[in-house]
């Protein structure tokens, strides 16, 4: 087994980015259940995110979604974050919630709609300039519902044209993260349905274009860790949108549905040098029925636990068993790490940093939940699911 000191040192370099929209009210298309005390403004979302970082010590960055987090002064918002020990993370573009986008955004058959969508993406890069964010996250709901509705190849050309324009607008240190999704809201054909399509576009664009893997965006049974291994091998894994799913894009707490899958993914990240490269570990979740802040704390901890187990894999023993063709022995090495209870090690890691060993309990004791219920009336919806 890897010594626990090495595991703890590696854990210290991990950052888990939380999404602003996870702090707001959300739901399904059937119902949004409002919760008391949720943020009314992007600033209040950052205040909640600061609590998550305060208790976990590994969540200093917060992703924004534009226009859900639209403000007049983004530099001031970045300052609000900085004063709370946070930084603004990925800027998530949104070209999927206006009537104009019924037939697509950057792939729309009408050039005027394409221009409007592109202008929004460019605005997101302007916002990155003001916030100091490194990453622009692009997810397109674009696709078609019926065979023959539009030309699959022409839509790819339009997509490439828009991505090229955005890529050329990026600054030296900025990146474009292209997210794929199997289906929904388009049900027949999605313009960026899989990692291969995202990868092909990124490859043409250049090294600042990277693929983002949302763990909820695959067909059942897909070997996500293979995708992770392959993208890392090609130097094109920009990051994750972590969440978990039982059926489709459920957006449940990462590690809740399948902690073993999360471990297998994190093992490939460790194996592929994902800790030394620029892989962003972001959450993309919504907490519809559970209290939001403790759920986000739990999610961050789930990522950390899976990471600790992945770091514990005895790489030498595994390689030796693999070389010897020892099928059961190799599997046992991996499972040994997975079955290790890493909670004591993580409690120790926290105490060494002056953190409470039990972040959720510490949050419950902190009085923050009661305070926001008393102080905030009429919380803001995350932006979707109404
Ligand atoms: C789409 O399902 C997605 O995963 C994209 O990342 C969006 O920006 C996000 O959900 C909104 O929650
Ligand atoms: Mn996502
Ligand atoms: Mn999603």
From TrEMBL:
The keyword Lipid biosynthesis does not apply. Keywords: Isomerase, Manganese, Metal-binding. One of its GO terms (molecular function) is metal ion binding. It holds the Pfam family AP_endonuc_2. The lineage of its organism: Bacteria, Bacillati, Actinomycetota, Actinomycetes, Kitasatosporales. GO terms for biological process: L-lyxose metabolic process; rhamnose catabolic process. It comes from the Bacteria. This is L-rhamnose isomerase. Its EC number is 5.3.1.14. InterPro entries: L-rhamnose_isomerase, Rhamnose_iso-rel, Xyl_isomerase-like_sf, Xyl_isomerase-like_TIM-brl. NCBIfam families: RhaI_grampos. Residues 72-246 form the Xylose isomerase-like TIM barrel domain. It comes from Streptomyces triticirhizae. It is an enzyme of class 5 (isomerase).
């Amino acid at each position: 087994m890897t010594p626990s000191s090495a595991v703890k040192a590696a854990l210290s370099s991990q950052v888990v980015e939380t999404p602003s929209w996870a702090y707001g009210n959300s739901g399904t298309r059937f119902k949004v259940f409002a919760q008391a005390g949720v943020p009314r403004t992007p600033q209040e979302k950052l205040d909640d995110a600061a609590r998550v970082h305060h208790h976990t010590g590994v969540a200093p960055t917060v992703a924004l979604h534009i226009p859900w987090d639209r403000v007049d002064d983004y530099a001031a918002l970045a300052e609000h974050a900085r004063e709370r020990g946070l930084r603004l993370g990925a800027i998530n573009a949104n070209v999927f919630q206006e009537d104009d986008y019924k037939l697509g955004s950057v792939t729309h058959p009408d050039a005027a709609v394409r221009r409007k969508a592109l202008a929004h993406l460019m605005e997101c890069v302007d916002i990155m300039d003001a916030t100091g964010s490194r990453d622009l996250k692009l997810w397109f709901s674009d696709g078609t519902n019926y065979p023959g509705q539009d030309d699959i190849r022409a839509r790819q050309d339009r997509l490439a044209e828009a991505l090229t324009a955005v890529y050329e607008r990026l600054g030296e240190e900025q990146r474009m993260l292209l997210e794929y999704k199997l289906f929904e809201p388009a049900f027949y054909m999605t313009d960026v349905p899989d990692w291969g399509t995202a990868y092909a576009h990124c490859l043409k664009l250049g090294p600042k274009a990277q693929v983002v893997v949302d763990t909820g965006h695959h067909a059942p049974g897909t070997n996500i860790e293979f995708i992770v291994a392959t993208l890392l091998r090609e130097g094109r894994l920009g990051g994750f949108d972590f969440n978990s799913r039982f059926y489709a894009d459920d957006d449940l707490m990462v590690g809740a549905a399948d902690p073993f899958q999360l471990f297998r993914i994190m093992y490939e990240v460790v194996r592929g040098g994902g800790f030394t490269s620029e892989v962003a570990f972001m959450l993309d979740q919504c907490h519809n029925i559970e209290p939001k802040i403790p759920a986000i704390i739990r999610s961050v901890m789930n990522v950390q636990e899976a990471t600790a187990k992945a770091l514990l894999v005895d790489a030498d023993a595994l390689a030796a068993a693999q070389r010897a063709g020892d099928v059961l022995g190799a599997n046992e090495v991996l499972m040994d790490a997975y079955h290790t209870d890493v909670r004591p090690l993580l409690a120790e890691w926290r105490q060494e940093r002056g953190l409470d060993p039990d972040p959720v309990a510490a949050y419950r004791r902190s009085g923050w939940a009661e305070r926001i219920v008393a102080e905030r009336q009429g919380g803001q919806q995350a932006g979707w699911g109404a």
